[in-house]
């Protein structure tokens, strides 16, 4: 039985996200998410067997050879440190290959999908029916999912202390991919399919999308073409624009409910009176710190990103949340709360102690109680589940603590702390208590300075942005984004970026109504896909085929 509450590290870091049935969306988890992750992991430990890990001679973990959806895991040996000539430590990087469509007479291409910040197992659907299968099928190529160092079973170290995480950075992982492309020998394939003798198309979605763009810039001789889908090429310390996308794209009735309730909630919290009855409405009366409360109640907003057109991965949680907010009081005769303006006498409820609030807040509280507060196990205090001020709870270093990985990347190079808009007068759907200090304190708590490495007080986002930022561009680098993707502000389709022309050599495409890397999922029969997905897949097939027509093998030296 699958644990319904399983959560994975991902680009959502900073928001606790509700569990859904499927594991394959990027999701996480701010400070509270880490707390719950640990509690739920402990609860599941007896049900689930231990992770299959053996040690090779060097003391590094090797994974199992088990296959997923018929794809057998394979392993490629990588240096732990590509840049230190004095270190000879290595680890094994896991990958899976789809050779269904490989035509030896054509000799490629290889379509490689970067696994990004999660176990490569979660990317197998893209190899099986999604974008890798689609592009391999239309080119007679080989498809590959390459797991990212430190994630899944491609783990180069024995624990995740600050020191041992120091090889988890953009330069090292880009060097992994380059080394792989230049040297891999696929089982059962005689021909040399290494780069640059074979054209490689490098695909990634989200963080991996940024990596795809970076690979095209850093290793142009190895990467023939690259596709950055929802590629977050702009790293930012604060990521308040994420919620702006949701505020503007959600049903205006829902956004209105959220803006109004947050204003009321911030008002109550700032007076310091009635904070306890307010928290009690949300099932969080014992939560000590107001900013923790503000952070927990933000969690339903993470469901926006979980939207997906593919029926097996779709989440309807966001719409359910909106419907719950709009529920009129029982027996009021209204069919929708929004029939009357916010604060209308018919909408007001008086709480014990005398505080009167609009019924939206009661709805919001009930929703939180039912789907979030309830995740705190029986007998465990609310403070332990949702409080984030006890640093000891983040100082656990064993390799089961997957949440440390993307968090480390956030704290060192990527940022994206979820905060309120910096302008206090800007409309918002999250509390103003979500400051940069609050959102980033977990970096100091989880990563105390090591002997060899210290996490900076704020991430050095220049490491990412100097590779091109919003303006990153190259021939045969495609940029594909979703119109209502909350990560769009961090992509070249940001409102802050210059507009560009969409050409075959430099595709620049937006998926109407698309959320996060919508082109990455696919159906075996493209004709069954929704119209806008079918359209983007057709365009992608077309430009990749056109690119390949121009390919010439490099002159042999
Ligand atoms: C790695 O280097 C150490 C010390 O430089 C040496 O003792 C060891 O044999 C080397 N290991 C391998 C696998 O080459
Ligand atoms: C982590 O692993 C290193 C070896 O890489 C070891 O020296 C250190 O004691 C370990 N730390 C913890 C907290 O497990
Ligand atoms: C941040 O990264 C850039 C680019 O790699 C580097 O030049 C700069 O020295 C770094 N800044 C700090 C404070 O480390």
Please provide a written account of the structure.
- With 557 residues, this protein is α/β, with parallel strands linked by helices.
- The protein folds into two domains: 13-49 and 237-446, no CATH class; 61-65 and 98-233 and 468-549, 3-Layer(aba) Sandwich (Rossmann fold), CATH 3.40.50.1820.
- It is built from 16 helices and 16 strands.
- The strands form five sheets. An eight-stranded mixed β-sheet has the order 5-6-8-7-9-10-15-16, sandwiched between helices. Strands 1-2 form a two-stranded antiparallel ribbon. It has a two-stranded antiparallel sheet with strand order 3-4.
- Helix 3 crosses helix 16 (531-549) and helix 4 (170-183) packs across helix 5 (207-218).
- One 2-acetamido-2-deoxy-beta-D-glucopyranose binds at residues 460, 462-463, 466.
Properties at a glance:
alpha/beta, 557 residues, 2 domains, Rossmann fold, binds 2-acetamido-2-deoxy-beta-D-glucopyranose, two-stranded antiparallel ribbon, disordered N terminus
